[in-house]
Specification:
Length: 210
Amino acid sequence: MAWTRDEMCARAALELEDGFYVNLGIGMPTKVANFIPDGMDVNFQSENGMLGMGPFPTDNEVDADLINAGKQTITETPKSVYFDSAQSFAMIRGGHINMSILGALQVAENGDLANWMIPGKMVKGMGGAMDLVAGVKRVVILMDHNAKDGTAKLLKECNLPLTGAAVVDDIITELGVFRIGDGGVHIQELAPDVTVDEVRERSEATIVTQ
């Protein structure tokens, strides 16, 4: 049985470590903040100038001035700090962020990532994605295993414009946890009742078992 999106986010949260500085990408990755293990201290950073993001607000906690890079309302913590965009990207480009959890359109078996545009469709711009994959110590992708039309998103080579070359470390989908390694995409963990054959049928990339 494949993981639900909440289960995927909860599994991604297990990749975090105490004291980590983490950037969460727009979309599903932002929900990872709701599944931090008890007792763990993780500092979430947002490109628009905030370190120390709290969980999403309840209706009576909403403050329209507190938003993340995806323009979602968020909460602050007692140790939240605010700064300008230059300082924010200095943190990212300087290698001070331990991990970024991002969505993806495509991931190649060598770790290439495409996650910012589909040619011919309106796009607002790259945003901070290129800086994140270049400057962050570890890049974890959290995505559906296949596109809405059923096509594979784990590929031998990406055919969409790249965000970064050979930048992805790990991928979490509803089928399991995967790591980019020698020879292709290595299975680290499978969701309950998911088989290696199913992963291979739904992927174009070379799937490697342990």
